[in-house]
Amino acid sequence: MAELRKGPFVLTNTLSRKKEEFVPLDPPNVGFYSCGPTVYSDVHLGNVRTFMSFDILFRWLKHLGYKVRYVRNITDVGHLLGDAADGEDRISKGARAEKLEPMEIVQKYTNGFHDVMRMFNIQPPSIEPTATGHIIEQIEMVKRILANGYAYEANGSVYFDVPAYAKKYAYGELSGRKIDELMANTRGTEGQQEKKDPLDFAIWKKAETEHLMKWPSPWGEGFPGWHLECSVMSTKYLGRTFDIHGGGMDLKFPHHECEIAQSVAADGQVPVRYWIHTNMLTVNGRKMAKSEGNGFTPQELLTGEHKLLERGYSAMTVRFFMLQCHYASTLDFSNAALQAAEKGLDRLMAAMSTLGKLKPATSAEEVTEEAVSALEQRCYDAMNDDLNTPVMIAELFEGVRMINSANDGKLALSEGSIAQLDRLFKLMVFDVLGLLEEQDAKGNDGAMDGLVQEFIRLRNEAKARKDFATGDAIRERLSALGILLKDTKDGTTWERA
Ligand code: AMP
Ligand code: ZN
User: Fold this and answer.
1) Ligand 1 probe mutation, 42, 47, 276, 279, most atoms within 8 A of CB
2) pLDDT by residue (tens digit) across 285-314?
3) pTM for the whole thing?
4) 317 and 464 both lie in a single domain
5) Is 70 inside a domain boundary?
């Protein structure tokens, strides 16, 4: 096995826009931070896609033998509506709308978020820090930025001085923006009078008297800016320079650009070595978002109770649907794609249970152990190539074809090959892709599949001894029970009528 892991693990680093070999700063330790949810409403399926992509990265790094510290925060203060400096805090707005304490809103949607993560088998991070739990550290960072001359105080708020920073350091490198163009584009735009330049952003905001969430600070009562919390919490737990920082593409600018600027301005250190950005889940080509009204919740997905859904789908069907697409490509939601994923997942799981019962054979054309090893290597290569889950899944379906053909007596697999395939499938399907066996609404549980596979085997035996009448009778009786057998070039599969 060990030599199978050989070959570099490459990741696309947004900083260079290239695939780069991943080499941690302090192997075998890996520090990995991803921006977590803002807990003021239910997470939608788009958010799930991003957290699932990072779950794959977390699982793969661990599988490669790294000791990963994965930090994923909870944003429970400071994320303003529309990300505008004068917008309302999302948590405060939620609290007002639901007539709850801000911390009740935070607790309610944090609980909901955890439920959704469990539902999709997304592993919990090593540390899940909250912004409100790190106010002191945030005030300290604001002080350092002020002391270094990259921020100014205005009327109880503190703003990051982008033009002052850009005189010495590059601003906009991550998102590929040029400071001159940014300045030209924002010139004359209506901004807050307090800000010296429209590009400046709040690192500490003065709280008005009616504001619900506020803390004392050297600048009066207020609350931290959203970008600041990620700079503070990532470097507190992972060090001033750490390995990987992830987030959705929509966070590249300004959020992540501001994070880099804050760290450099406060401590003179570039915080992140590899930036990983996931692409968006879209609906009819438009980003799924709460504000678009096209964001359905995972619960609606299960029940099918949403105008975009023809019916309900299981969490594992959705997981499989998402992993059949590379994390850096957009993925458009459609009922047809989910239904295809449901069938694909059924086939994959059915092949795994067939594999568990397969008897070694030598009579038919033999699949060599080298061929199975080559398949295994291709699965590793796909995952090492920027977490290419769609290619890895396609390779697994090569294995499915082998398994089904062996079950039909058309291919022979040795005992060693069966054991190797069994190990490979369990590793890739359960541990790496994080799929779970499920007893879905159709009742396609393991026992049911086992029974049908037994009939398929009896039918194959009948056909092999040219007893076509028995073969046809098995097919017809199963059909009368609503179980349809389909003969394909790769063997016989089944589905419910
Ligand atoms: P938020 O709670 O809005 O800060 O979002 C949490 C995470 O979900 C961020 O990393 C976002 O980039 C990501 N996200 C938001 N909308 C989508 C979407 N439609 N598809 C994929 N990821 C998304
Ligand atoms: Zn963040």
Assistant:
1) 47
2) 999 998 888 988 888 998 899 888 999 999
3) 0.87
4) no
5) yes
